Amino acid sequence: MTPIHLPGRVAIPSLPEQTRTPPSLTALESFNTAPADEVRPALLACLHSPRWADRIADHRPYPDIDSLLAASDEAAYDLSPGDLTQALAGETLPVLPPDVYGAAHTALSAASAAYEARFGHAFVICVDGLPPNEALDQALAGIRSRLANDPEEERVVAAEELRHLARARLLELLRGAGNCATSHNEPASGK
């Protein structure tokens, strides 16, 4: 069965928890020493904000992974409204597992369209570490509950979810997963 692509945009990391291993220090060394023109595109795949990517790349080397993640958080907290809009605009829907039933696709598609109509940007939620079937349920529950937020409140929630996504994708980058972000246009390697 071929992977199913949903219309709309929702960010859901796609690797199940059992395939995740801690990044190695050699991965951090490689990240710290790689040329900026190689690191920047990978960082932009983690969070679609040039300001965030430049800041992370410019402050290398990081002594350890916790320092890198702290820098990522700080840079994400400092995103301007324009940076946040740009980062949200770059989010796309990943390939969902082929065994996910059609009704879930329809429900997620409809909820995503309602969310984008209400807030003017993609729905993002970090479900890092959840199995794919639970991630879909969490995304559906999250989108439905967040539709009740006022736009200002939702922008704060979306910014926090982007921060979580950036951390998860940055860790995947260091683990050597290839593509930080999985989208319907660019599936992650090994998929």
List its traits:
191 residues, mainly alpha, UraD-like, 2 strands, 57% helix
Question: What's the topology here?
Answer:
Layout: E1 10-11, H1 25-33, H2 36-46, H3 50-58, H4 65-77, H5 81-89, H6 102-119, E2 123-124, H7 132-146, H8 151-174
Helix pairs in contact: 2-3, 2-8, 3-4, 4-8, 6-7
Descriptive report:
- With about 190 residues, the protein is mainly α.
- The chain has 8 helices and 2 strands; from the N terminus they run E-H-H-H-H-H-H-E-H-H.
- Helices cover about 55% and strands about 0% of the residues.
- The chain starts with 9 loop residues before the first strand and ends in a 17-residue tail after the last helix.
- The radius of gyration is 16 Å and the shape is globular.
- It has one domain (about 10-175): UraD-like (Orthogonal Bundle), CATH 1.10.3330.
Q: What is the topology, as strand order, of the major beta sheet?
A: 1-2
When the domains are counted, the total is 1
State the helix count: 8
Supply the CATH superfamily name: Oxo-4-hydroxy-4-carboxy-5-ureidoimidazoline decarboxylase
Fraction of residues in β-strands: under 5%
Q: Report low-confidence residues grouped into runs of 5 or more.
A: 1-10, 12-20, 177-191
